[in-house]
Structure formats: structure tokens, C-alpha cells
Amino acid sequence: MPTLATNRDARHRYRILETLQAGMVLTGPEVKSIKDGNVSLKGSYATIIGRELWLVNAHVGAYKPAGPMKHDPTRSRKLLVRRSDIDRLIGTLKSQGVTLVPLSVFSHRGLIKVELGLGRGKGKKDKRETIKRREVERKIGRALRQKV
Predict the structure, then answer these.
(1) Residue-by-residue pLDDT tens, the chain, 148 positions
(2) Checking DSSP bridges between strand 39-40 and strand 59-60, what pairing results, if any?
(3) In a domain, 127, yes or no
(4) How many beta carbons lie within 10 A of that of residue 42, not counting itself?
């Protein structure tokens, strides 16, 4: 499963509670563009509209060889998940401070899929703690490498 794009900002801003995978409804040139790595998840999110899951504000650049087609790079794209998952998400998303953020876009058996994370927003204090923990782990790793 080669990862085509990641949303680094999501793990920084949100504490990810659980993840799920969803297929994406795309046009042909969008698939080619995503496989070329011309996709950005920064600032995007997933939402439920009328018992359907949609990816909003994800940027998929135009595929140049497709010609001068009319292309909207940030259009909303439908996500394909099981009905039971959508029903569960409806209840979970109603709780305050929880949002559905895309974590990565990857290819699986020729299909483009997106990994979504159910995240609760981090405060400034939480972000600082995460950075401190990462720094400590780095120092420990360096010390262990130097002793070996």
C-alpha cells in the first residue's frame, strides 16, 4: 500500500482516537493526478451530509495530459464506507470537540483510498507535551545508538 500523501498537521492538531479507511469517488484525470502525488490534505476534513460521507477541501491538482478540461481542485468528493460505519460516526460526531480528519491517501490494489481519523482537538498544553515527549525519545535513541 504505497502512501501517496499524508496530512502531518492532523496528528499535530488532533489526538486521533480511531481510524477507518474509505474509498473515494474520483474522475479519471483525478486518479492519475493523485497517483502522480499531486494531492494535498492540508485544511481538509470529512463530514456527513444526508447519510453520506464527503471529503471537503482536499486539493487535487489538474492532470496536465488530460487537456483543458474544466477542473475544480477543491471540490467535495464522496467517500465510500459501510452504512454501519456511517451510522456509528453520526453518533460519535455529535459529541463536542470531535472531528473527522483525513490522515493519508494511499493506493490499494489500484484503488485510491483515504485513511480517516476520528480526532479530538489538542490544546496548546497538549501540543507542548507531545513535542517534549518526542524530544525525549530522540535523545534516548541517540544515547542508545552512541553506546552500541
Answers:
(1) 688 888 888 888 888 888 999 999 988 888 888 888 888 898 898 999 888 999 999 888 887 777 777 777 888 899 999 998 888 888 888 877 788 999 999 989 988 999 999 988 877 877 888 889 889 999 999 988 887 6
(2) antiparallel
(3) no
(4) 13
Assigned domain for 113 exists: yes
How many domains does the structure of the chain reveal? 1
CATH of the domain at 108: 2.40.280.10
Cell, residue 37: 502525488
Residue 65: domain span: 3-122
Q: What's the Cα-to-Cα distance from 64 to each of 34, 35, 112, 131, rounded to whole Å?
A: 12, 13, 19, 40
Structural domain contains residue 36: yes
Q: How far apart are CA 56 and CA 59, in angstroms?
A: 9
Q: Is 129 inside any structural domain?
A: no
